[in-house]
Design goal:
Blueprint lengths: L4 E6 L3 E6 L6 E5 L4 H12 L3 E6 L2 H15 L3 E5 L7 H12 L5 E3 L3
Parallel strand pairs: 3-4, 3-6, 4-5
Antiparallel strand pairs: 1-2
Helix pairs in contact: 1-2
């Protein structure tokens, strides 16, 4: 293990490390509806981390948020957004501010 980090292992994508800053309560995951983003969201939720999921596909986000909330008893919220849009970052910032949540982990996967 890497000192000061938690190890993340997923069957599909292998392993890696996240900096462990103590009480990691909320993670923002972009590109969360498929692939690596989805796998990381599942792993973090399994560790009890609440997740904010961002991607373009509303149906996949709704399904993932419901699955993670039910299976892991965590708070899973989602925001449908194409991060390639001109004002996407402002929209995302405003949404996070409205949620009144402090982000502890960022998975920038989009």
């Amino acid at each position: 293990p890497v000192r000061g980090c938690i190890q993340i292992n997923t069957p599909t994508f292998g392993g890696g490390y996240l900096l462990n800053s103590g009480n990691m309560k909320h993670a923002l995951i972009t590109g969360a509806s498929k692939g690596i983003g989805r796998a990381i969201a599942q792993e973090l939720a399994a560790r009890g981390v609440d997740v904010l999921l961002v991607a373009r596909d509303r149906i996949l986000l709704e399904e993932l948020a419901a699955e993670l909330s039910e299976k892991h008893k965590i708070d899973a919220r989602y925001f449908v957004l194409d991060l390639a849009g001109v004002d996407a970052i402002s929209q995302l910032y405003n949404w996070i501010s409205e949620q009144q949540i402090q982000i502890h982990i960022l998975v920038n996967n989009a």
